[in-house]
Amino acid sequence: MSAGITLDLSSGVPPYEQIRAQVSALVAAGTLIEGARLPTVRDLAADLGIAPGTVQRAYRELEARGVVRSRRRAGTVVAMGAGGGAAAAVQGRARDFVRGARAAGLDDDGILDLVRGALMTA
């Protein structure tokens, strides 16, 4: 049970960052809701075939950003308000943008390049 998280080990993006980004995206999209429990560090590491320390680093980064909270014996869960607020207000616009970009023939990498470019100039 990897919660829909996959890794591209040939990517230049470190595995912990891939996990962090995917969990953040799942929360922002509303796929993971407040209070949803993430897999244990050991379970996710075993599912993905990586060291537990890699998953632990991703979870620490997510906690530092307020996306999840971790407690001994309670596990790691999506934090209160992590997917709401401003993110919810623009979620529909983001989906519309992606649909429009795909209709224009862009692949996911091209769409991400556009977003990264916009972030750099905003």
In short:
The protein is mostly helical and 122 residues long.
List keywords for this structure.
two-stranded antiparallel ribbon; globular; 5 helices; Arc Repressor Mutant, subunit A; mainly alpha; 55% helix; 2 domains; 122 residues
Write structural notes for this entry.
By secondary structure, this protein is mainly alpha-helical. It folds into 2 domains: 64 residues, Orthogonal Bundle (Arc Repressor Mutant, subunit A); 36 residues, no CATH class. It contains 5 helices and 2 strands; from the N terminus they run αααββαα. A two-stranded antiparallel sheet has the order 1-2. A hairpin with a 3-residue loop joins strand 1 and strand 2. Helix 1 packs across helix 3 and helix 2 packs across helix 3. The longest helix is centred in the last third of the chain and has 18 residues. It starts with 14 loop residues before the first helix and ends with a helix. The model has no long low-confidence stretch (mean pLDDT 88). This is GntR family transcriptional regulator. Keywords: DNA-binding, Transcription, Transcription regulation. One of its GO terms (molecular function) is DNA binding. InterPro entries: Tscrpt_reg_HTH_GntR (IPR000524), WH-like_DNA-bd_sf (IPR036388), WH_DNA-bd_sf (IPR036390). It comes from Georgenia ruanii.
